[in-house]
């Protein structure tokens, strides 16, 4: 594909698989942290993409339904290794989280509770804050390169902090940047072609009793239409699985969402946990396939359009605005997470030490996350 890659030579599939398997194991902290880890690994360390190309793929992922960080991984795989890379990158990023969540679901079903993981999280969260902050700094120097972009970024950050819907914010930023750039052009050249919004039809899933087919359709629908954070996912799951179908209880839903939040990888593996509760290992696989399948379809459909978008002045301006809003959303989420992640004596120390290791000694973020997990676990055991 003639796309946003820094080098023309394609990356071997084995390298794509190895990188995204490792990212899938250590990507704690939610989508903002996942993006930061990918930026550190893909852009800064391996130089597979330029910062500009990486931002384009992030903006494209934010404009389609589904798990944004997973879609970013799929986009990167496609950019570096074509169609096989699209499948390998996405699958390798998802599978580690799905396996971990399945193991936790087995423990939950067998023993009626979740293993204690608070110590691990206490060590991981400060490291994640440092990683995300570095990524915001690296990306911000490029995306906020003009006064207009900086002003738009500040406005988007304020709006996000006030609770404006993520999708509305992205759309408004794209339109605003397009309008500003269009007004500056002196000629009356033709407008770029409009970019249509892809969406799968909302699929009805109303079986009278639990079936694997019904489970697949429920999660396929959710993966096809859901924009936003894990809290939006919670609303969709509650409406379908608790209220309408009555397949799980409120407590089971909250436990499933908790597992999705605290394990590495995409939070959409909440579906894996629910699938296991309802149908064992087969149910876990069916639910996982249902909720993630739309992400592959959307990226496959939209990925080839990115080079055309960059050649259109109108579409390029709109994508620049979306990139500014995406960065603002990352910044706001990071501030919100830092309030709890840096609580206690260990949090600030780990965050500062991680920042120094990243910027001064260029230590891999993946190793820092694992070190934070071990330190947190050790600290919790000796208390």
What oligomeric state do the depicted chains represent?
single chain
Radius of gyration over all CA atoms, rounded? 21 Å
The end-to-end distance, rounded to whole angstroms, is 54 Å
**SS content category:** mainly alpha
What does this structure look like?
- With 383 residues, the protein is mainly alpha-helical.
- It has a domain at 212-299.
- The protein has helices at residues 13-26, 31-45, 51-62, 68-111, 118-143, 147-161, 166-184, 212-225, 230-244, 250-262, 270-302, 306-311, 313-341, 346-359, 365-382.
- The longest helix has 44 residues, at 68-111.
Summarize the structure.
With 383 residues, the chain is mainly alpha-helical. The protein contains 15 helices and no strands. Mean pLDDT is 82; it is low at 1-7 and 188-204.
Layout: helices, strands, pairs:
Elements: H1 13-26, H2 31-45, H3 51-62, H4 68-111, H5 118-143, H6 147-161, H7 166-184, H8 212-225, H9 230-244, H10 250-262, H11 270-302, H12 306-311, H13 313-341, H14 346-359, H15 365-382
Helix pairs in contact: 1-4, 2-4, 2-5, 3-4, 3-13, 4-11, 5-13, 5-14, 5-15, 6-7, 6-13, 7-13, 8-11, 9-10, 10-11
